[in-house]
Amino acid sequence: MNTLVMDDAVEETRLDRQGEHIVGKPLDRYEGPLKVSGTAPYAYEHLAGEEVAYGFVVTSSISKGRIVSVDASRAEAEPGVLAVISDDRIPRTSAQPMSGGAQVVDGRVQHYGQPVALVVASSFEAARHAARLVDVEYEAEQGRYVLSEEMENAVKSEGGVMPADTERGKFEEAFAAAEIQIDETYTTPSHHAAAMEPHATVAKWDGDKLTIWSSGQLLETNLKQIANGVGIDPENVHLMSPYIGGGFGSKLGIGPDAIMAALGAKAVGRPVKLALTRPNVFQATSRRSETIQRIRIGATADGRITALGHETWAANAPDNTFFEPAGVSTVFLYAGENRCIRHRLAELDTLITSAVRAPGEAVGMLALENAMDELAERLDLDPIELRRRNEPDVSPQGDKPFSTRMLLDCYEEGARRFGWEDRPSKPASRRDGEWLIGYGMAAASRANQIVKSSAEVAIEPDGRVTVRSSMTDIGTGSYTILQQIAADMLGVDPSDVTVELGDTRFPAGAGSGGSFGANSSGGSVYVACEELIEDLAEKLGVDPGSVTMSEGHVIADNRRQPLTEVLGGERLVSVGTIEPGDTGSDYEQASYGAHFCEVAVNSVTGESRVRRLLTVAAAGRILNEKTARSQCFGGQIWGIGSALTEELVIDPRTGLIVNHDLAEYHVPVNADVPQLEVVFLPERDPHSSPLQGKGVGELALAGVGAAVTNAIHNATGVRVRDYPATLDKVL
Ligand code: MOS
């Protein structure tokens, strides 16, 4: 058992001493063949061939009010129906990520599509049919569904992932006195994570013990939430989630399926499978809040920011304190002595809002990076030059040093590769037939953190290595990078390393969320491997610092001995843990990047087509060039979506989420996405972890949508401040 608390910089690592042979390489996904051959079991696919029952969820047809009665008699009379559950243990949405459990139905309806009952039957079809026969009587009330109408009632919430207010100096005075003033309001719509794999669970009881397979990002939290919801001791729950078809924040907390499947299985005395339908996923898990953001920038005539204000209004359901932290990057991205970053939260009678991919940056940087472009235009300054003039030496909020910050390098490298000097200097000045051509850029930043994470690493007597952790792989590449780290640390071939994840019997892993998974779980594997090397050194009677692991050999004291020989038939095992310490709070730590975009806007129809998109990123050590790049492609595509197509539409009259499937909720498809380019700058952040890496998954999403709309402005002269920039707004 070895624990590393990150109180000091890790300047020199074993990966550098021994040589980074495998870490960083674009290895194919370890579990890829299982996935493409359909043999990797996702949550719903467990217990194939066993006698199971199936659940189907009954959902509310009003948005706000009281449940007067639930009459299940017609449903229960149907053939195959085993149970109908409609008591107050039914969860009304997903659980908020860090909360102890799900919010339950207490006789109230809080949003359209809220689960109110569960039907369990011997076949899926019977359950679905019977669910339509459950008669629910409601007493409906008028709800509140529109954020702009509730702004005045918005309050300061302390329940977010950042303080609601961050202020410095005298913002109002400085802004009023500024030579140049930008004061604009941007609106962003609600978004949905829309993960390909719906929230799904298989639950099985064995006496008091619950075995459960459920699609989740943070298994340690998820296990406690399940135990809470079902009303049992967490010791009696065994949760597994070995393969996950995307989460994007929507699976940080358990979906309503997890508790319902467990309740259903208990009620009918056999395992229950329950997958949310696509409309259930859209209407009964969680969503990103719509936002209204007022940005005020005061600057000198030569483009130095003197006052920076970013006020955000976001929504959540009653009793929910999470607010979309849209100002998170504004705190440290640009200089300026007088600052005012505020968030206010309004109540709406709609589905809860929670973390969706890059919570905060994804929509906050749409507004901020658009406003910076507006300031550059006003100053007749190149947008990159404006950003250079406002590059802070230390964090403009707390005067903390940055751990590492290669933002200027990202601009420079990106501008060179993209050919930024060819940008049309005046809006609406370049044509290609009926298409108007424009270039836009934006900064990217994403705050970095590590979270406590543990992993067990064992070296078997034959020299093979096994890594185990309840860490998850939500499609990001965790299996592969942990294999790479163990292989380099112990000097073995990656094919000799087996990685087992997504099982709460293993040491508690960080889970996947907030782009902290790779660095945190990888750090724990590093720490475990160091202890194993100490054990080997002890066997040889040498100093562990003098040991080098290479090609299946232990090299020490000028002797090169086969690993198996040093083991001498023994199995060595270690659990490594990494946890955040002082370096996280002593330094402002983030990943940075720059986006460059070329769009073509049709002068007849107003449709915008992204022609080129380049992201240059600096995110510390890149652990796998291929999986990291795939994550950035994902971010870029999210950015295109947030700029042009994605909008979760809530009916202002009824509160219904109108576009509750993938046909109507428009994520970009291949035809919307050009050849994407992602470049990583070499960087090491000694304050992040012994891997010296930082989060990359959400970085490429931050700001990219603004690069697209800034390019639309450059192409057309039209400034869209109400996202997405659909053609009706551009024409
Ligand atoms: Mo993150 S919001 O878990 O994609």
Secondary-structure arrangement, i.e. CATH architecture of the largest domain: 2-Layer Sandwich
Count every helix, treating DSSP H or I runs of 4 or more residues as helices.
Answer: 19
- Biggest β-sheet strands, sense, barrel: 7 strands, mixed
Q: How are strands sequenced across the largest beta sheet?
A: 4-6-2-13-10-11-12
The ligands found in this model are: dioxothiomolybdenum(VI) ion
CATH topology name of the largest domain? Aldehyde Oxidoreductase, domain 4
CATH top level label of the largest domain: Alpha Beta
Number of domains: 3
Kindly describe this structure.
The protein is α+β, with helices and mostly antiparallel strands and 731 residues long. It has 3 domains: 2-40 and 450-580, Aldehyde oxidase/xanthine dehydrogenase, molybdopterin binding domain (Aldehyde Oxidoreductase, domain 4), CATH 3.30.365; 43-142 and 196-284, Aldehyde Oxidoreductase, domain 4 (2-Layer Sandwich); 402-448 and 589-731, 2-Layer Sandwich (Aldehyde Oxidoreductase, domain 4). It contains 19 helices and 28 strands. The strands form 6 sheets. Strands 4-6-2-13-10-11-12 form a 7-stranded mixed sheet, with helices on both faces. A 5-stranded mixed sheet has the order 1-25-19-20-21. A 5-stranded mixed sheet has the order 8-16-15-14-9, sandwiched between helices. A hairpin with a 5-residue loop joins strand 14 and strand 15. The longest helix is centred in the last third of the chain and has 24 residues, at 517-540. It is globular, with a radius of gyration of 26 Å. The structure holds dioxothiomolybdenum(VI) ion. Dioxothiomolybdenum(VI) ion (MOS) binds at residues 217, 247-249, 252, 355-357, 359, 513-514.
